[in-house]
UniProtKB/TrEMBL annotation:
Pfam families: DUF503. This is DUF503 family protein. It comes from Metabacillus arenae. Signal peptide: none annotated. InterPro entries: DUF503, TT1725-like_sf. It comes from the Bacteria.
Length: 92
């Protein structure tokens, strides 16, 4: 089962693209270390207070896929400098 999540986020404390990249790098590396998912910034690369992540997980069972994706989203929510707004799931 392939699960795909798109989530838009706001980064309130970013005053430049450099600040934004530092936050995104910290989040992406932590998610890649802890969970069996792939994550990338897929939109708003030139906007310094907004981003959109694409997260993909592939497992043999939908329950495990959904659990991995929800754990990754929970980790994003645990960072105080970023707020997740619009989130959508797709299944293949």
């Amino acid at each position: 089962m392939i699960g795909y999540v798109e989530c838009e986020c706001f980064i309130y404390d970013a005053a430049s693209l450099k600040d934004k990249r530092a936050v995104l790098q910290r989040i992406s590396s932590r998610i890649k270390q802890k969970f069996n998912v792939s994550i990338a910034e897929i939109d708003y690369q030139d906007t310094w207070q907004r981003t959109k992540f694409g997260i993909v997980a592939i497992t043999s069972n939908r329950v495990f896929t959904e659990k991995e994706l929800n754990n990754a989203l929970s980790l994003i929510d645990s960072f105080p400098e970023i707020e997740r707004t619009v989130t959508s799931f797709e299944w293949f």
